[in-house]
Design brief:
Elements lengths: L13 H45 L22 E7 L4 E7 L3 H4 L4 E2 L10 E6 L20 E5 L3 E7 L6 H8 L5 H9 L8 E4 L24 E9 L6 E14 L13
Parallel strand pairs: 2-3, 4-8
Antiparallel strand pairs: 1-2, 1-5, 3-4, 5-6, 6-9, 7-9, 8-9
Helix pairs in contact: 3-4
Length: 268
C-alpha cells in the first residue's frame, strides 16, 4: 500500500512549537502575576481584618493611665497581633503581628522577634510585603524626612519621625531641626546616629539595619540608645534582590487615657 499524506497534516515547524511554548509561558506568568498582585491581597485583607478584630477584643475599653513615658507592650506569641502602625502620609494603617514567617507577613507587617518592642530603647523593626500579600509597605519609597509613623499600642500612641535622608552633616542638621529635639538633632547630624539614613537601599544579608543601633554591630539595648523604628521591604517592585529600609526615631508618646490622639495622624 502506498503512503498517502492527508492534506493539512504537516508536522508543526520549530518556530510554531517555540511560539506555542512562549504563549503558554506568557499565560502562566500572567496568571501568577494576577495571583500575586490581586488574589493574595484579597486573602491578606481578610486576615488583616481578623487580627484587627482580635486586637480590639483583647484591648480594654478603658485604657489604664500610663503617663507619657513609653511603656512597651508584653512580648506576644508568634502570629499574635499586639499593635497598629499608622502611616498618615500614605493614608494607611495596619495591625502588627509578631514574627516574620511567611504566614505572619501574609497577615500584615511582622515584628522581628529579636528586636525591641515599641517605645523601648533600641530598634523596633518591622517587615512587610511590597507587592502581593496585602502590599502593606508598597509605598515606603514615598516617605520623606520628618514624615510621621505612629505606633498604637493598647495604652499609648507613639509618634516616630523619619530621620534625615541626606548624608551630609549640614543638610542632615537642617532636615532634623524641622521635627526632632535639639539632642536628637545633634545625634543624627554629627553624633552616633549620623550614619543612619532615613531611607536607603541595601542587600538582603544586611541584618545590621535591625540592630539596636542600626548599621552598627550588636550593642546591648538601653545603653543611652534612642527608641528607633525600622521598616523593611523588598526592592525594587516585583523583585526581592534588594531591601528598602526606613529608619525613624521616637519623638512623642501620648497616653490613651488622656483622650488625646497625636496630631501626626492628621498629616497628609
Amino acid at each position: 500500500m502506498s503512503d498517502t499524506k492527508v492534506p493539512g497534516s504537516r508536522r508543526p515547524g520549530a518556530g510554531q512549537v517555540i511560539g506555542e511554548l512562549l504563549l503558554t509561558a506568557g499565560v502562566v506568568i500572567l496568571l501568577f502575576v494576577i495571583y500575586e498582585a490581586y488574589w493574595t491581597n484579597i486573602v491578606s485583607g481578610r486576615l488583616q481584618d481578623e487580627v484587627n478584630t482580635q486586637l480590639e477584643q483583647s484591648w480594654g475599653k478603658d485604657p489604664v493611665p500610663t503617663g507619657d513615658d513609653p511603656v512597651a507592650p508584653l512580648v506576644p506569641v508568634l502570629g499574635e497581633s499586639f499593635a497598629r502602625v499608622h502611616l498618615p502620609t500614605l493614608d494607611s494603617a495596619y495591625a502588627v503581628v509578631e514574627g516574620t514567617r511567611n504566614e505572619d507577613l501574609r497577615t500584615g507587617p511582622g515584628h522581628y522577634p529579636d528586636t525591641q518592642m515599641p517605645g523601648e530603647a533600641g530598634n523596633f523593626a518591622l517587615a512587610g510585603h511590597r507587592i502581593g500579600s496585602g502590599a502593606v509597605f508598597q509605598h515606603l519609597d514615598q516617605l520623606e524626612s520628618c514624615d510621621a509613623v505612629v505606633v498604637e499600642t493598647e495604652f499609648q500612641w507613639m509618634t516616630y519621625r523619619v530621620v534625615p535622608l541626606d548624608s551630609a552633616s549640614t543638610e542632615r542638621r537642617a532636615e532634623a531641626e524641622a521635627c526632632l529635639s535639639p539632642e536628637q538633632v545633634d545625634r543624627v547630624s554629627n553624633g552616633d546616629y549620623a550614619h543612619v539614613l532615613g531611607r536607603h537601599i541595601t542587600m538582603p544579608g544586611d541584618i545590621d539595619v535591625v540592630n539596636p543601633l542600626p548599621g552598627i554591630p550588636w550593642v546591648e539595648p538601653g545603653l543611652g540608645l534612642e527608641s528607633m523604628l525600622t521598616l523593611t521591604t523588598c526592592h525594587p517592585l516585583y523583585s526581592n534582590t534588594e531591601r528598602m529600609i526606613v529608619h525613624a526615631v521616637l519623638v512623642e508618646t501620648i497616653s490613651k487615657s488622656s483622650g488625646n490622639t497625636p496630631a501626626a495622624l492628621q498629616e497628609r
